[in-house]
Amino acid sequence: MTCSPPSHPIPSMLVLSNLTNLLSQILALPALHTAVLFTPAGQLVTFVSEPIRPKDEVRIIVGLSGEVWQETREQGYGMVDSELGRIVVVPVEDVERKPGSTAEEPLPLMLIALNSDESMEWTELQAKGKLVASHLARSLSKYREFLVVRKPSTPSTTSVIASPAPIRS
Hints:
Blueprint: H1 16-25, E1 32-38, E2 44-49, H2 55-72, E3 78-82, E4 85-92, E5 110-116, H3 122-140, H4 144-147
Antiparallel strand pairs: 1-2, 1-5, 3-4, 4-5
């Protein structure tokens, strides 16, 4: 049995090492020391950090960034000053976000979080994030249907799930 190559070649931008290399290019040591790419659902895709950080610390950045994004997404970016330093989160999206829009907008393709110390200006941190996000969006936008997890629909009524276990008395 022989394996044939996939009918659609994997675009070079979707290769994990290429994503990691792109993120490493925006680091500005020692100030901007960590860049993280993750899904809107909070799944870590890849990250770069100098010096190397424990993965648990990166997951904290992802969790905090996800919360900040949910609270500030109308602005098109989020910022927080934390114990880990300054964190800016920007969307990787293929549609232009209009600040203050109330219409249901699609989830971004991915999110990027940049973590720096206090010596980096917020505007510079945000500009770097938007630059790499726009670069990624050009490559990833044609794969939106495969990358974006749809928002779960909220049920209109509460459902009761019966347990198969017998009731104890």
